[in-house]
Every structure is written in structure tokens, then in C-alpha cells.
Design a protein that fits this description.
Blueprint lengths: L4 E6 L7 H15 L3 E6 L30 H9 L3 E9 L2 E2 L1 H12 L14 E9 L3 H8 L4 H5 L5 E10 L2 H4 L13 H17 L2
Helix pairs in contact: 1-7
Family: Belongs to the SsuE family. Isf subfamily.
InterPro entries: Flavoprotein-like_sf, FMN_Rdtase-like_dom, ISF_SsuE-like
Protein name: NADPH-dependent FMN reductase
Length: 205
């Protein structure tokens, strides 16, 4: 049996802490169904957002490829060759992290023709996990609608798209300030671990 390829991305700045733990939980879910998994700390890579060079849209160059020479372009190649992409992205000032948005714009822009057509013929399931310390009801009603378009364009990867909102209370989730130590007594944290594990397993199977 051929193992599916899953790429898991921590799109937050901390290697430890809530967002990273959600990404690692999704990773464990993918591993539980036998997926071949690669884990990426996005903030450790050196890259920028799209520079509008437009080489990816030229007919005399390979399609579905970003030509910027930095750490992100090889990752985009691997994402488009994978079966599943799992991303945990923290919400800053009512928007996903800037590094996540830079990845998204370059990933999607390079698969679109100059006529707006989707050139990608593969299929990549996507699990997107938002992490935040808002009230979850407020987040779903007042914050998330502002970036619905950025969620919808993930469908251009032609796979299943599942989005999960993982809220946390910093006073309960972190045992001491924001040092990255997680309290095992937080029931909400435990529930979020279970849900992200399930998403990783489902989309990687």
C-alpha cells in the first residue's frame, strides 16, 4: 500500500505553544493512518510574499511553480506534490499570520493562468486550523467572515477543505505567562487536540 504524503505547517512564530501543539496534533493524526509526514516551522524559513514577477504566468515557463529563489519555492513544489496539507495559523489583529498569508498568495497565484484559470491538475486535501484567544462565537461571527475568500481559494487545490477554529484562554492554557508551557488541566486544550488529531487522520487517509 502506497503511503500518502502529508505536509504539516506551523504558521506561527513559536516552535512551542498552542499553535505549534495544534499542528503537531494534526501531524500525529496523519501518522496514525500511515501517512508520510513532513513538518515545517514556517517562521524558520527565509522568504517574502509574492513579488509580482509574473514568471509563473508566462507560457514559456513551467506552470504551477513559483520561481522566486528562496526557501518557500521548494516548499510550494512539495505541497503541490503532496496528498494533504495541514496548517495551523494563529490569528493576529483579526487576520491569519502574515507568514501564512504570504504562503497562501504564492501557492495559489502560481497555479492560476493569466486568464484566471486553475492550472493545477492534482488533488491536495487541506486542513486549516485557526488558533486564537477570542470567544469562539465572536470569532466565527465577527472575525472569520473577513477572510472567507482566502479560505475559498484553497478549493483550487481540488481536494477536500476542512477548517477548524481552536480557541484558547491564555490564563488557563498556559501554566506561566506566555513561555510556551501548556497546562494539561485545560479541558478546552484537550478537546482541541482531539479535534485536530481527527482532522489530520481524516484528510491523510
Amino acid at each position: 500500500m502506497i503511503s500518502l504524503k502529508t505536509i504539516v505547517i506551523n504558521a506561527g512564530p513559536k516552535k512551542r505553544g498552542f499553535n505549534a501543539e495544534m499542528a503537531k496534533s494534526a501531524l500525529r493524526g496523519a501518522q496514525s493512518v500511515g501517512a508520510e509526514v513532513e513538518f515545517i516551522d514556517l517562521y524558520r524559513l527565509k522568504f517574502t510574499g509574492c513579488l509580482s514577477c509574473l514568471i509563473c504566468m508566462r507560457d514559456d515557463f513551467e506552470s504551477c511553480k513559483c520561481f522566486l529563489r528562496d526557501d518557500l519555492s521548494p516548499l510550494i513544489d512539495r505541497i503541490l506534490d503532496a496528498d494533504c496539507l495541514l496548517i495551523a495559523a494563529p490569528i493576529f489583529f483579526s487576520n491569519p499570520s502574515s507568514h501564512y498569508m504570504a504562503l497562501l498568495e504564492r501557492l495559489i497565484f502560481c497555479i492560476v493562468s493569466n486568464k484566471g484559470e486553475n492550472l493545477f491538475k492534482g488533488k491536495v486535501n487541506v486542513g486549516l486550523i485557526y488558533t486564537f484567544h477570542y470567544d469562539k462565537g465572536y470569532f466565527e461571527e465577527s472575525v472569520r467572515p473577513h477572510f472567507k475568500h482566502s479560505e475559498d481559494i484553497l478549493k483550487m487545490l481540488n481536494g477536500e477543505v476542512e477548517i477548524y477554529s481552536a480557541e484558547y484562554d491564555s490564563k488557563k492554557t498556559y501554566s506561566t505567562s506566555f513561555d510556551g508551557e501548556i497546562s494539561s488541566e485545560d479541558e478546552c486544550f484537550t478537546l482541541n487536540l482531539e479535534k485536530t488529531y481527527e482532522i489530520g487522520a481524516k484528510l491523510s487517509n
